[in-house]
Amino acid sequence: LDKVFILGKTFININNKYYQSLDSSNPENGFLKEYYIKEIKPEVHVISNKVLKPGEKKLMHKYYMYLNNTLTEINLKKKDILNVFNLKKEEIINFVKKNKLSYHNEEDVLKIYTFYNSLLIN
Rounded to an integer, what distance in angstroms lies between the CA atom of residue 10 and that of residue 63? Predict the structure, then answer.
């Protein structure tokens, strides 16, 4: 399976892993999100072996850019995002300032990605 649609969201298969495509206009490339489960082990008292704090599982996620058949993990930080969009770095910085966007917000990074693609087309 190359693609899966769940509740209106598109997940694409890259190297036998599924990533949510955050860019609906171009689901094959772009801004992706990977979900995974992080298991936190229970906290156990050393002597009595009594469970002090139960273990838990948390749904976590990582962000990726898929450009030119290369999957690059990014943190939603200014430095990481500007490294990915290095070709048009100054234009991206101006766009973010002008539109008062945040490098830490998923929706804003999607807007930055869309703007970057529009620069490459022109």
Answer: 15
CB burial class (10 A; 0-12, 13-18, 19+) of residue 8? exposed
Q: Give the global pTM.
A: 0.79
22: closest CA among 68, 62, 77? 62
Distance in angstroms (rounded) separating the CA atoms of residues 90 and 58: 38
Question: Contact, 23 vs 114, CB < 8 A?
Answer: yes
Task: Write out pLDDT tens, residues 47-56.
Answer: 999 999 999 9
Average pLDDT of the residues in 98-102: 95
Q: Contact at 8 Å (CB) between 36 and 58? A: no
Distance (Å, whole) CA 37 – CA 21: 19
